[in-house]
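Narrative summary of target 7.
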Amino acid sequence: MIVGGPNARTDYHINQTPEWFYQYKGAMMLKVVDEGKFRDIIIREGDMFLLPGNTPHNPVRFANTVGVVLEQRRPKDSLDRMRWYCASCGEVVHEAAFHCTDLGTQIKAAVQDFKGDNDKRTCGKCGTLADWAPKPGSIKDPNLE
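Modeled conformation, tokenized:
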């Protein structure tokens, strides 16, 4: 799929199959959870990146950027997951699972469900209310460096 920016989400997508990213215009940030640690991967214009399956990831796209993402067809028994983490303590706040048939529609529905339910947004460990969208200015745009 061809994806342009900007976007504003806090969820991490998890699917069993790898994803291939190619950044056609501008740079993007791929937030990942790698061996339990949060890290940001900058994919610059002209760069490619292969994300291993089962890696929680949040693709952050900025204004006037365009990228290509190739995803494999999902096996019939696979589930995609959307996961939200607590910004205060790092615990999983909520996770939604679905068999992927239309990723765009299903992600939107999961985000809307999370956005509208404070119980799902409240961290069970520390009580922090998780944001459904990043706070303005909280993510540094690598295109402005």
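The mean pLDDT is 95.
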